[in-house]
Structures are given as C-alpha cells and as structure tokens.
Amino acid sequence: MIKRFLNDFVNLFYPRLCCLCQNPLIENEQHLCLTCLCDLPRTCFRTGKDNPAWALFAGFSRMEAATAFLFFEKDGKTQQLIHAFKYYGNRSLAEYLGRIAAIELKEYGFFASIDAIIPVPLHPNKEKKRGYNQSGLIANGISSVCGCSVDRTSIIRIADTTTQTRKSIYERHVNMEKIFKLTNAEHLSGKHILLVDDVMTTGATTSACIEILSEIPDIVISIFSLAIAMEN
User: Fold this and answer.
1) What's the pLDDT tens digit per position in 77-102?
2) Which one, out of 11, 128, 189, 220, has a CA that is 20 to 30 A from the CA of 88?
C-alpha cells in the first residue's frame, strides 16, 4: 500500500509517458502504452527460416535459424525506440523490447535448443563511451524469458570500425573483415548459440561474427535481431 502511494505521488509530478505517443502510462504498462505496443511493426518471422533475415545468412553451413522482431524504417516507430536506448541512454527500454520479443517468439519454440546467448560485441572504446552495449541489454531481456545465460567474453571486437550508414553493401562487408576475435571459446564446442544484434541491414557485422564463431568445432548458430531494415 505504501509503495503504491509513493509511486502514485511520484507519477503526479513526474508522470511515466509512452516512449512513442507520449501519453501517460497506466498501471502495469512499461515504456509503451498498450496501443503503441500492439501497433509495433512486427515482422512475424516466427519460424526462423524462409524469411528475409534467414536469407542474409543461409549460405553459412553452421546456421540453424535467423529472425528479426520489428521492421525498421527511417523516421518510423522502430527507429524512434532504437535511438532512445542506443543514443539517449534508455537502457531498460532495450531490455524490455528484448523481453517482449522473446515472449512472443518462445511460443513458437524459437529458443527450445539454445544453449547460450552472445550479443554482438562493441569495440571497448565505443562501449566505454556509450556506457553499455545495446545488444547486450537486448540479450538480457531475452535471457530473462528463455533462461539461457548471456556470454559476453567468448568473442570480442578488436577493431573500431567507422560507421556503416553511408557505405555500400560491398564496403560494409569489407569494413567488417577480421574485426572479431575468439577468446577461450572451447566451451562452446557442440553448442547452439543465439547471436543477438540490434538492427540488421546488410548483415555484414553479423556475418563477421558468424565467420569467427564457425571456427569452433560443431557449433550451431541462430540469429536474433531486434529489427531488420528492408533496403531496396
């Protein structure tokens, strides 16, 4: 009772607002009101195969499945959410979206055989400047639903590459060559790991991760991205 009174008192002066429509959130709503949550541009890539995300990585022999939760469009709802946690420090939003995505995907058995979750690493300089790895926060949200541990040490980023935004598909893939390194990853041999990223465009960064992880004997790899940008 006291906790609820204090929350109501705080909300009177500092109301919790929906990240998208800015309307006040009601009890049990987090970050998004029910209307905005229902209206998110979901991909419905539920099987992990035969979808645009899978098509980006189907050529890798170690691949099991690939999916993305939301469609990303310039100036759209997904971009607004991603910018909120990627550039404006809303860490709990990233975990929340990972959790919501995992709840919906779990119903279709997407995580049934996953042994560990690996967020796509940031270079230490960039992570230090930002204060966190947004893919790691999304992975935390997924972990809270599927129960798999998050592995942040088996693969590290050793090259601090320039932004990919204005590069061609070829330039993006060249820019990602040899930027990751395995560190004591023998324990992943024979395991099914879920590689987690925030936004998938050409798949260049994720492909570089897959290539280095494929050096581990008998590893199986699935991909989850919070969003996918459908480039023409």
Assistant:
1) 999 999 999 999 999 999 999 999 99
2) 11
